[in-house]
Please model this.
Amino acid sequence: MNIKAADQSKRPRRSDQSRAAILDATRHELIEHGWRKFSVDQVARQARASKQTIYRWWPAIANMCVEAGLDLLPARENKGRDPVERIGDLLRPIEQVAKTSSGHSVLRSAFLAASDDPAAGETFRAWLRDEIRGPLRMILAEIAAKNVIRRDFDLDGALDIFMGPVWSRLVIMRAPLPEDFSRHQAEHLLKILSPN
Amino acid sequence: MNIKAADQSKRPRRSDQSRAAILDATRHELIEHGWRKFSVDQVARQARASKQTIYRWWPAIANMCVEAGLDLLPARENKGRDPVERIGDLLRPIEQVAKTSSGHSVLRSAFLAASDDPAAGETFRAWLRDEIRGPLRMILAEIAAKNVIRRDFDLDGALDIFMGPVWSRLVIMRAPLPEDFSRHQAEHLLKILSPN
Amino acid sequence: MNIKAADQSKRPRRSDQSRAAILDATRHELIEHGWRKFSVDQVARQARASKQTIYRWWPAIANMCVEAGLDLLPARENKGRDPVERIGDLLRPIEQVAKTSSGHSVLRSAFLAASDDPAAGETFRAWLRDEIRGPLRMILAEIAAKNVIRRDFDLDGALDIFMGPVWSRLVIMRAPLPEDFSRHQAEHLLKILSPN
Amino acid sequence: MNIKAADQSKRPRRSDQSRAAILDATRHELIEHGWRKFSVDQVARQARASKQTIYRWWPAIANMCVEAGLDLLPARENKGRDPVERIGDLLRPIEQVAKTSSGHSVLRSAFLAASDDPAAGETFRAWLRDEIRGPLRMILAEIAAKNVIRRDFDLDGALDIFMGPVWSRLVIMRAPLPEDFSRHQAEHLLKILSPN
DNA sequence: AGATAAACGAGACGGTACGTCACGTCTTAGG
DNA sequence: CCTAAGACGTGACGTACCGTCTCGTTTATCT
Model:
């Protein structure tokens, strides 16, 4: 309670209340109207925020949408178990959010925004690097050392195989993810990378 | 992708010249501005066409964009060879168009449009059914009969595996397709579906 | 000047049925939407006529509207009575048509069209000359000869005095003409022109 | 015709600069194209103003045109002299503006707009009431008390007689007002209303 | 009785304008 | 300072209308 007062005492900085209301309204707008008909005016109106506040804190609308989508994802769990489960864990936050209709819509539109706007793609690609690609490389390197998979695997190719079906279902087909999606994806990836 | 010339003897005389100019301008606009900032006014201006002509012949802008993208794809070849090559053939039109920077952009934006607009998704899904999913089912059923792959494979799951990396590279990552992409995809799919 | 009388025996056979339907629809449109929002498409639709037919027979839309209005006016009666009544007779066709709400609207919009479009004004001014100004000059000259009015009256000034209140009520104020309007107008005019 | 600057300290800050530019462009457009072909786009373009700004501050285009016309009229002078001159004074602002070709056109089109659009007629009728009808009633009542004119005169009838020729020349005939128009109109009115 | 040539309905077309909405910038007033 | 509010110039939206231009299809003479 009393610790945070130290740094925040200085100047009236960014309002967390505004930020939350704006991201909520952004998600609502993405669900309601999708990416192309997304309206900043509508977000400002619904969040009772000034457009100036939006433009001050986000470099572009697409970044705001990506942030609104990624904010939904729960933190990745990291229990040390067998490799298949650890790889599957990487997809589990997405799988969980995509179970609800609204979460599915928000994620789809957020990824759409990242694809359509090269600048916002940066925000998205940073997330992909930190949350998927990086951990995946670590795990794969680990099990490659044990010769469970071939040592000369191509990481980006592996990423395509691993994430491709996510984009396929979530973004392109607008369809729910099937049962046990994360585990099956992990199994498929290992099967492809197996050295035989 | 071809409109029949059978009934053109009757009344509603659509101008093929306008249609071609509009689709060309659509492709140019998708390359230039992407999906969200796509401007119908700009297309009309550039095609020297009336906006009414656009709205008369396309149910929605997204449909027009999907059509503009799919129109680029060359006809699929169907030489009777081994299953891996026949499966790979399904991706070859896309692989070929995506080699050029502009073809890559147009296809990406067209798929974006199909994802963002549920109605236009129909046009896209019809193409997917006729050009990818249907042929793939035929080929897979054939080789399943020979026990090359498991007989109880899930077609939509196979489609995710087969097409997912396309969406991953083309749409999500905005990256070129790697060398021999079609053949590798076919091999991966068969490896996953293999019965062992 | 009058070439058309010669050629009417020849080929171009104008359809009176179309003409009547078009003028009816024109009146309906003037009542419904007024002059500025008058729509040729609407007229064609309602008259089940082609726009080509309209543009073939009328040099401008305003002319068509003026014609549609003036066509409503019954023929002027010419009973030989005292000068006041003969002058009043000139206004009676208008007075009669303006009694109904729709006739009032059509006449107003027709005169509006004539005022707004210099070319169509010709059609209107020809009517004014033949139906009002000419006859009025004859009558006034006649009674000026008997010294009932001053001999050096200004005809156009008299016309302003005589017709002005018509425009005032009908066009400007959108108000019905008062009782005995024609007779009072005749009396006023003679009072102004009286020589005392 | 003047908007007060008193309450401008409060919130809705209308740009006077925009308003003036828009009214100027409106006058130009009325002169150039008249009422039916009046283009809001053209006005916005010429005034370097947004169409939204136009639609925000005027309930209808016709109101804007009426305002643009009436704004031209100089303030009415009110020197206490004999009744004929005081009545003539009421017309003098119009007479003065109508002397120029452009003033003539603007006034005509403004009155046309008021006639064609019932809603905009209100703006016009308010002006007529305050600037013509009201003052005229006062003056006529005054001289009726001295038995110069009949005491039971009909004010609206008098208004028709007084203003009718204005509409006749200015609006209907598109002709200049004759010499000494205001004075003659006053004389005519008093002659008609004289009690003999 | 057929041929012929115009007028006709229908409606697509390139344009322009409509009235509304959105974008991103700016200004004002309040905490 | 940051915020809410909202006016502003710019320009796109999707619709309607303008005037022109084919299309076949009547239709009313003139062979």
In short: Chain D is about 70% helix and 0% strand. Chain D touches chain C at residues 34-36, 38, 62, 108-109, 111-118, 121, 125, 157, 159-161, 163-169, 171-174, 178, 184, 188, 191-192 (CB under 8 Å).
